[in-house]
Amino acid sequence: MFDRYAIFYTPHEAAFAAFGAAWLGWDSAKGALVPHPAVAGVDMDLLTATPRKYGFHATLKAPFRLADNFTEAQLRAAVADFAANHAAIPLGPFKLVTDHGFLALRPTGDQAVLQNGVAEIVTGFDHFRAPLTQSDIARRRQAGLTARQDAQMLAWGYPFIFEDFHFHMTLSGSLDQATLDAARPHLAALIAPVLPAVPVLDAITLMGQDTAGKFHQLHRAELTG
Question: Which domains does the chain show, CATH number per domain?
Fold first, then answer.
């Protein structure tokens, strides 16, 4: 049914999730476009064009094609099994940052437990991933990868993992500084009332990418182990 799959963090807090969906213009839980908030002097369609298709999320296992010997039902079952055997992970308060040319939320504080947990997701689900094609590899290498990142891409399908992973919830595309500077104070004011007081990675969400490129939430499995 879907071209690719992924494992994301998607927040359960209703106001936080709803704001993120509206800001980006795509609600991955409902599988529907939603209106942006009106932000004076900011072209919201342009600002959010790149991250819109993913919905409001943080990537845990980057999008991949499903290997021929597995089904979506098997992947869904594995996500549920993983969640039942792993505990929730505190994230630390979110901070709005401009990083590598885009706006994002990042958790603050010690991230060692989070880093280890995400690494386990990356490796634990990799047998479901079809091998990268040569065009996949060439496209990734256009980003100017380090030797370590290139090796990680070849081994695990994605370069920005392990030491190169930084948990983040993307809120804009990579744009010029003036555009980001214009949007940031509006974003900060709008998101402040809905930020969770004690963010927790309390579930992992299996996502599916449709033929139009949009990602849909297929199964949100609470971490209860």
Answer: 4-222 (3.90.1140.10)
